[in-house]
Amino acid sequence: MFKVLAKDGAAKYGRFETVHGTIETPVFMNVGTAGAIKGAVAAEDLKEIKTQVELSNTYHLHVRPGDKIVKQLGGLHRFMNWDKPILTDSGGFQVFSLAGLRKIKEEGVYFNSHVDGRKIFMGPEESMQIQSNLASTIAMAFDECPSSVASRDYIENSVARTARWLKRCRKEMNRLNGLEDTINKNQMLFGINQGGIYDDVRIEHAKAISDIDLDGYAIGGLAVGESHAEMYRIIEKVVPYLPGDKPVYLMGVGTPANILEAVERGVDFFDCVYPSRNGRHGHVYTNAGKLNLFNAKYETDDRPIEEGCQCPACKYHTRAYIRHLLKAKEMLGMRLCVLHNLYFYNTMMEEIREAIKAGRYSEYKNNKLEGFKENDKN
């Protein structure tokens, strides 16, 4: 299913075959938590901006509209009108982000819905059942994402429980994929490495999950408060202990610079809300760094966000016009900024793949990082 076709140091270019099409890696997955990219971006827009994989969230879709409703309507692909790969996060991150609304037990996690307060239980089996109903291409194992500042004792206990949960996820997915009414009987499962910033805990957990037959392996629990240096160190420690013939996914990361550094350390899959979230606030990415289009200096700027960019915003609109839309609180302003940012990320991933194939990734990375600093000098 995953074939590495070129390597440049630890950076690798590969192809991952799925029932919904081939994914070229390294890849950035565009985040549509509740089945849509925030910022009025539709599935047909995703194809125009070169999206390979859309990512949605199990917990949020379970809360509304309900995974059983999505299944009744033919699964998430049909619901969204998106025919390419979809990865669904397991709900495990909500164990971290909804800390004030949950209780963790061996059987799973008890939540109070952030929408209406109703009680929800989700364990490994329930997460797999919800994701099977959604019929995503890739399902994530249910885990706990502990805080980066949690004590070593807490993290060790959490990781041990996450390892037990993974075995339950594997067993339940095997069962679900064999049921007659399952929409996607080829649903894949990725396991998640945890361990905070403790190298030895991370390595032991990586060894443990590598012994389980999975379709891919993720590094979770980073970009949650630790420094960039700590994050890069953990990636360097963990990747060598994960199977080399399976993709590695760094969850929730990150900035363009984070991605460039992580690719150099052997990561294949990425996702992050930054491009859409920043776009909705008028912050746009360029090869010369990030711009804030709310700044007064763009009031009469008749250039596109970035010269030569072929995204829907840059092809047709000026910085001045987009700034006007943002200031007037017109939704089109947010939409154009989000489309530009996602196009920027997806184009950067194309460039990364080409640089690896050409054996010049280090040169590409250094030039890209240097370019990002240009606006800081002005």
TrEMBL record:
Gene3D superfamilies: Queuine tRNA-ribosyltransferase-like. Residues 252-258 are annotated as: RNA binding. Zn(2+) binds at C309, C311, C314, H340. The active site is at D89 (proton acceptor), D271 (nucleophile). It catalyses: 7-aminomethyl-7-carbaguanine + guanosine(34) in tRNA = 7-aminomethyl-7-carbaguanosine(34) in tRNA + guanine. SUPFAM superfamilies: tRNA-guanine transglycosylase. Binds 1 zinc ion per subunit. Pathway: tRNA modification; tRNA-queuosine biosynthesis. The keyword Glycosyltransferase applies. It is an enzyme of class 2 (transferase). GO terms for molecular function: glycosyltransferase activity. Substrate binds at D89, S90, G91, G92, F93, D143, Q194, G221. Its cofactor is Zn(2+). Pfam families: TGT. Keywords: Glycosyltransferase, Metal-binding, Queuosine biosynthesis, Transferase, tRNA processing, Zinc. InterPro entries: ArchSynthase1/Queuine_TRR, TGT, TGT-like_sf, tRNA_ribo_trans-like. Residues 10-371 form the tRNA-guanine(15) transglycosylase-like domain. Its EC number is 2.4.2.29. Catalyzes the base-exchange of a guanine (G) residue with the queuine precursor 7-aminomethyl-7-deazaguanine (PreQ1) at position 34 (anticodon wobble position) in tRNAs with GU(N) anticodons (tRNA-Asp, -Asn, -His and -Tyr). Catalysis occurs through a double-displacement mechanism. The nucleophile active site attacks the C1' of nucleotide 34 to detach the guanine base from the RNA, forming a covalent enzyme-RNA intermediate. The proton acceptor active site deprotonates the incoming PreQ1, allowing a nucleophilic attack on the C1' of the ribose to form the product. Belongs to the queuine tRNA-ribosyltransferase family. Homodimer. Within each dimer, one monomer is responsible for RNA recognition and catalysis, while the other monomer binds to the replacement base PreQ1. This is Queuine tRNA-ribosyltransferase. It comes from Eubacterium segne. The lineage of its organism: Bacteria, Bacillati, Bacillota, Clostridia, Eubacteriales. The gene is tgt.
